[in-house]
């Protein structure tokens, strides 16, 4: 009876070990081929944001080509409006997470079109700037100055995020890459 | 103890293969990188010679004592090799990869626990002495432990995305495969005993020796060859990095000027 248990447990154990090793090897091969997973999985990582509100806030600071507007064109949204439109610090953090996906989306293109390297690097710098703004906001929140600091940083984050999405879409449009429609819908 | 022609053949092949591997490690300058692995192979050369002498001159009991003592030293050295390989894979630039140390500690703890559990569940062949029971169970435990550790290392390196197209990987693959086969053989020994006069028990031992010889052959070839060259940096990336470096240098220069 003990022998039966032993060989049963041993078989399960050896099978589990084999599955673990084979799975690891397959995962390694897959990772080497596509370091950021499939395109669909990548797109699935994008969190939902209120696009209209982001565009509205962003366009108060920059125009549609990403150029900064002059003071005469400033739409002047107040702090409370921006807070509710973007969803507070949590909303900004969602944008921050989406930035990482935007960088990966361009990296995905870069694997086939090395020319996309410049855009990928620009997006990385933009993502870094967004991180910096959110970091400043969090520091301000720790000393109870979040409300005062929010409009300035949130506007910047929305504007940078908006420009980033434009860059990604322009890149996909330029090379007429598959998945453009899904991307437009997601962004 | 009586040695048959096939026993002598395996003994001689094992000695020649180990000496060849030691030569490869020395000539191709791998010994400096894999010091503990070299020590393990050197220990195996000594072990082969000592056990042969004990078989010729000593009693069966003396052989078991010698086998157990040298086997324990072999297990300690194999564990040291695991540590050496972990250090090569998870410390590519001299520092432990983030989280790797904690996860490795968990893998070691889980491996020891599972190995001990399986060993406890295994049978003791009837009519065996305490010494041979320790030998059978010890062999089984070490085979399970080593297999788990190597499988865990392979899985962990994939999870934290560390490359393993190196000589360290070849050593891990060889030892891992040998340990895996050893689990099956030692599970068989725990039911059939290790008496060399029982044919099936002797056949299992020959199969273990053959597997080990294949692994040593694999190491001789792969450690003689150079490790696969890493992928070259794309030209665009290289230019970009150079431009970035020049930019950083310019910024640094400006900051230094401001500081004066």
Question: What would your notes on this structure say?
Answer:
The complex is a heterodimer of chains A (187) and B (260). Chain A is mainly alpha-helical and 187 residues long. Chain A folds into two domains: 1-33; 39-186, no CATH class. Chain A is 75% helix and 0% strand. Chain A is built from eight helices and no strands. Chain A has helices at 2-33, 39-44, 51-59, 79-86, 88-110, 117-142, 146-174, 180-186. The model of chain A has no long low-confidence stretch (mean pLDDT 81). With 260 residues, chain B is an all-alpha fold. Helices cover 79% and strands 0% of the residues of chain B. Chain B contains eight helices and no strands. Chain B has helices at 5-27, 35-57, 60-90, 100-121, 130-159, 167-192, 199-224, 235-259. The longest helix of chain B has 31 residues, at 60-90. The N and C termini of chain B lie far apart (85 Å). The model of chain B has no long low-confidence stretch (mean pLDDT 83). Chains A and B meet through helix 1 and helix 6 of A and helix 4, helix 5, helix 6 and helix 8 of B.
Under CATH at level 1, the class of the largest domain in chain B stands as Mainly Alpha
Q: Give a count of the beta strands of chain A, DSSP E runs of length 2 or more.
A: 0
State the end-to-end distance of chain A.
62 Å
N-to-C order of helices and strands of chain A = HHHHHHHH
Q: What's the number of structural domains of chain A?
A: 2
Helical amount among residues of chain B, as a percent range? over 70%
Q: Which structural class fits the helix and strand makeup of chain B? A: mainly alpha
Tell me the number of helical segments of chain B per DSSP (H or I, 4 or more residues long): 8
Largest contact between chains: A-B, 23 and 24 residues
CATH-assigned fold name of the largest domain in chain B: Rhopdopsin 7-helix transmembrane proteins
Q: Return the average pLDDT of chain A rounded to an integer.
A: 81
CATH architecture assignment name of the largest domain in chain B: Up-down Bundle
Low-confidence stretches of chain B: none
Let me know the number of strands of chain B: 0
- Backbone CA Rg of chain B: 24 Å
Order of SSEs of chain B: HHHHHHHH
Could you list the spans of chain A in which at least 5 consecutive residues all have pLDDT below 50?
none
